[in-house]
Amino acid sequence: MWIWFYQMASPKWFYQFTDKLLPWFRGSTLVLMLIGLALGLLFSPADYQQGNTVRIMYIHVPAAFLSMFAYVVMAISGAIGFVWRIKMAHIVSVSCAPIGAIFTLLALITGAIWGKPTWGTYWEWDARLTSELILFFLYIGFMALHNAFDDRTSADRASAVLALVGLVNIPIIHFSVEWWNTLHQGATISKFEKPSMDADMLKALLVFIVAFQVYFFTVLMQRIKSEIIKREKMTGWVKKLVEGKAS
Amino acid sequence: MAMKPHRKKRLLIILGSVFGVAAIVGLVLYASEQQMNLFYTPTEMASGIAPTDRVLRIGGLVKEGSVKRSESTLLTTFIVTDLAEDVTVTYDKIMPDLFREGQGVVAMGKLNDQGVFVASSVLAKHDEEYKAPEVLDALERAGHPVDKESK
Amino acid sequence: MMYFETFESFIEMGGHGLYIWLCYGIVSFSLIGYYFISAKSTAKAKQELKRFYARLDAQNQVNE
C-alpha cells in the first residue's frame, strides 16, 4: 500500500500511468454521455408537476455534485501536499480548480434557466444559491492566489490553505436546504430512504452523474499531464519525452 | 504510522485553522439565522417574530381549495399555510406555472391593516418528488388518493 | 419506450423547449470545449518546452 502511495507521488510514474488510463476514460465518457442523453431526453417521462423542464435536472444535479466533489479533491490533495510536501499532490490540487469552476458555473447557469419556468425567477438570494455562488468565488480566489506568487512552492502552499479553509462551505451548500427556509427544494437521492423519483428519471440522473464523474477524471488527467511536464522540465525524462517524438 | 514532528506540526496547523474557521462561520450563521432564511412561515407571522412594518417574504403551502380568482381582473386570493397557521395572500399579477393548490409558494409583499398579505411577487417552490404523470393517474384510479401535503 | 411521438414535440418539449435546449447546449458546448482545451494543453506545453530546450542547448554551446 505504501509502495503504491510513493509511486503515485512520482510525477514520472503518474504521467505514464495516466497515459495508459486516458484512452479508457475518454471512451467511457463518450459512451456514458450518449446513454445519458438518450435516457434523459428520449426515454424518460415528463414530471407530473414540472413537465419537460425536469430534464434540466439530469445535467443540473451532476454539475452541482461535481462542483463540490472537485472542491473536496482539490482541498484534500492540497492538504496532503502541504503536510507531506508532496509535489504530485499540489499538481492534482491546482489542476482541479478550473474544472471545478466550470462545473460550478454550469450548475448556476442551468439552475437559473430551470428556475425561470418552475419558480418564476432566474435568481433569488436564498441560502443554497448564495453558497453555490460563494463556491465559484472560492475557485476564482484559489486560481488568482496561485497566480499571484512568483515562487511556485509558496503559491502551492498558500492556495492549499485557502482551499482547506473554504472547505467549510461544502457542508453549508449541502445542508442549506435543511437548515434554512429556501426556495430551492430539498435533496431527493441523498436521503437514506428510497429516492422519491420515478425509476426511469432516476436511471437518467444516475447515468449522468457517473458520466460527469468520468469526464471529470478524464479532463483532470489531461490537465495533470501538462502541469507535470511544465513543472518537471529540468528532468531528463521530460526532455527525452519532448525531444524524442514529435507530438 | 509514525509522523515526523515537523509534519505533525503542519498537520495540526492545517486542522486547527480549518476547525477554527468552521467554528467562526458556524457561529456567524447561527447568530444571523433570521437573515439566512429566505422567508417567514405563517407561524412566525402569527407569533409576531416577523416584522410587520416592512416588505418581507412568506413561504408555505397553498391551502387546498383556498384559491379564488377574480373573474374580471388578474387578482388571486389564496391561503398560505404551514399546517399550523394560515395567512391570506392577495396577488394581482400572472402566477408562475407551478402555482397550484397543495404546492409550495414564496410570496414577497407586506401585511396590511386587515392582516392580509398583499404580494408584489409570487414564486413557486417545487418539492423533491419526481413522478411520471401516468403513474399518478394510475395511483388515483387504483383508489390511492395522492397525499400532496405529505411533504 | 420513447417518450415523444413526433419530432416536433421533441423539439418543443411541451412549450419549454427553449429552456431545456439552452441548458443542454450550454453544458455540451462547455464540456466539449474544455475537453479539447485540456487535451491540447499537453501538446502546447511540449511545443514550449521544445523551444526552451533548444535555447538551453544553444546557450550551453556558447558557454563551452
Your description of this structure?
- The complex is a heterotrimer of chains A (247), B (151) and C (64).
- By secondary structure, chain A is mainly α.
- Chain A has one domain (22-187, 196-236).
- Chain A has nine helices and no strands.
- Chain A has helices spanning 2-8, 11-41, 57-84, 87-118, 127-148, 152-166, 169-179, 199-231, 236-244.
- In chain A, helix 4 runs antiparallel to helix 8.
- Chain B is α+β, with helices and mostly antiparallel strands and 151 residues long.
- Chain B has a domain at 36-124: Nucleic acid-binding proteins (OB fold (Dihydrolipoamide Acetyltransferase, E2P), Beta Barrel).
- Helices cover 30% and strands 25% of the residues of chain B.
- A five-stranded mixed β-barrel of chain B has the order 1-3-4-6-5.
- Chain B is elongated, with a radius of gyration of 23 Å.
- The termini of chain B are far apart.
- Chain C has 64 residues and is an all-alpha fold.
- Chain C has one domain (17-63).
- Chain C has helices at residues 7-12, 17-63.
- The relative contact order of chain C is 0.06.
- The model of chain C has no long low-confidence stretch (mean pLDDT 90).
